[in-house]
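Suppose you are handed only these lines of text.
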Amino acid sequence: MATVCFDGIVGPTHGHAGLSAGNLAATRHAGEIANPRAAALEGIAKMRFVAKLGVRQAVLPPQPRPELDALRRLGFSGDDRAVLEAAARVDGGRLLALVSSASAMWTANAATVAPSSDTADGRVHLVVANLCSMFHRSLEAPFTARVLSAIFADPARFAVHEPLPAGEYFSDEGAANQIRLATRAGSLHLLAWGRSAFGDAPAPRLHPARQTRQASEALARLLALDPARVLFPEQDPAGIDGGAFHTDVLAVGNANLLIAHERAFCDVDRVIDQLRERLGPELFIAVAREGELSLDDAVGSYVFNSELVTLPNGRMALIAPSEADSTPAARRFLDRVVAEPNPVEALHFVDVNASMKNGGGPACLRLAVPLEAEEERALSGRVLFDDELGDELEAWISRHYRDRLAAKDLTDPELAAESRRALVELDNILSLPVLGAC
Ligand code: SUG
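From them, the structure of the protein bound to N~2~-(3-carboxypropanoyl)-L-arginine can be written out as follows.
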């Protein structure tokens, strides 16, 4: 089994609108002028880099934005120009920014995943995330369901589940709150959460907790996991208040290695004991305590939002954001992890700064899907990344994307038309007929 990393292609309306409360980077960069073309090319460069390491790499398409259908459902009418201009007058342009967000690029939030080796029916299960905590992100779910159903189309091998019913009770943020670990003792899924729907658990005071415990429990059922192979740790409210709105801001795991900050989970030592008990002595754990790496530096550098990948030789590489290189305590921590006796043999830094400005590091940009070779061959569409696809995508981005996008540009109906044309063309490149149909 090898993990295929599905990266989201950054969309043509990529911007910095400060849409996510509790996401410190996004809030700090609100209102900055964006460069969607550079952002998208940065994403392709990362995919190229990861693929060159020998890691299986794939792509997911961006979504049509601005979401004019959503605006029409909200009562705006007339032609596209009239709809966009009227929406732009609402709440100082906030509504238009929300329906224009290219946030589907952070595919770690697209779905929760269980490989066929872990499920009761031997199929790969994916549950599309409803993302209902944030309005702009909730708009992603229906299209994500179509895209994943188109790619994982073979019902004998794959089960793509509809998003959980949206609402206060079942708020689900996808694999950003999931860590799968495995040793010869078996596998274990951590399905973390930030609040209980009934308020019967400690909650953050400053920032919203997005995932509910009830959602995580529903995911375990839908993924058809053995209940003995699931843990439901709570995200530390102090971590969320420090800017870790998703688990993957403070923890990353792969196979027999977990790397985490002590503020990732409530009572982190108990979580570690449970992991050791279930996974045995083959499990390696590297925890940063506050004294070694402050919560501020951990969140500011996104060092735990590194991709932790298995290389063809069975060892691992850490692909960290360049911000972790320039934050001394984060860099020292990474050096310690590489020096310790664990599977990590290489440390790399990638520049995904346009994504980082919105609170999305390397790991946010990919959905990790462990697949057997025959399952990988059963994927529909031309989604597996190679140099040729990379070249075509770069040329496509250079043809269609703007290099400057300010909030006022979102009212331009030509931007919506350009984006649509770009996505229709992408259908052909990816042989994935989901975009043109919109
Ligand atoms: O949901 N940012 C995203 C970042 C998601 C990061 N994903 C993971 N941690 N896996 C979010 O907060 C900001 C968009 C803006 O402000 O324009 C945004 O949606």
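What can we learn from it? Residues 15-20, 23, 26, 101, 103, 106, 108-109, 134, 137, 176, 246, 248-249, 358-360, 364 surround N~2~-(3-carboxypropanoyl)-L-arginine (CB under 6 Å). The longest strand covers residues 2-8.
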